Amino acid sequence: MSFLRSFTFASLLMAGTGLLFPVASFAGDHHGSRGDDDDRVPPVTDPLTWQECGACHMPFPAALMPAASWQAVMGDLSNHFGEDASLPAATVTAITDYLTRNAGRGSLSTGAPLTRISEQGWWIREHRNEVSPRQWEQAGSKANCKACHKGAEQGDFER
CA-CA distance, 136 to 150, in Å (whole number)? Predict the structure, then answer.
């Protein structure tokens, strides 16, 4: 997933103001050689995140979303994609800290953070023309990474 590896900050200088604004972008195309780490991200290594998140779904690697997205997800666990996934405050804090410390570097946006991995621009680009309707049906959900990526829990998203 070169989107994680090739994150760059482009500096835009506002004319006459001398202000520097960082602009995040995901560059590159992961469909190059398979001999590199384009399709790998650090797996979840926090036992509490594995225990709590993994009780209902694959614990998603933190690098798949930016910190603001993880904060939004963890800030509304009573409505976690239609389920009440409420946890004690100390547990929420610990998991949120882990996710935000290890989060991906997403684009700077003025809108609300995207709370689904499948809403992230890189995810849409990666899956746009690569997954057939039959494969989506077999997976059952866009959140079921393991349906196509057997090493997803270890951070390996090669097909």
Answer: 15
Which residues touch 59 (CB under 8 Å, ≥6 apart)?
A: 44, 49, 50, 53, 153
Q: State how far the Cα of 67 lies from the Cα of 78, in Å rounded to an integer.
A: 19
Q: What 3-state class would DSSP assign to 75?
A: coil
Arithmetic mean of pLDDT, 95-104: 97
3-state secondary structure 80-138: ECCECCCCCHHHHHHHHHHHHHCCECCCCCCCCCCCCHHHCHHHHHHHCCCCCHHHHHH
Q: What is the DSSP code (8-state) at residue 154?
A: G
User: What is the pLDDT, as a whole number, of residue 32?
Assistant: 26
* DSSP β-bridge partners for residue 83: 80
pLDDT higher than 60, residue 95: yes
Q: How far is CA 16 from CA 12, 22, 23, 53, in A?
A: 12, 17, 18, 49
User: Can you give the length of the chain in residues?
Assistant: 159
Q: What is the pLDDT of residue 38?
A: 66
With contact defined as beta carbons under 8 Å apart, do 157 and 151 qualify? yes
Nearest to 49 by CA among 36, 39, 37, 62: 62
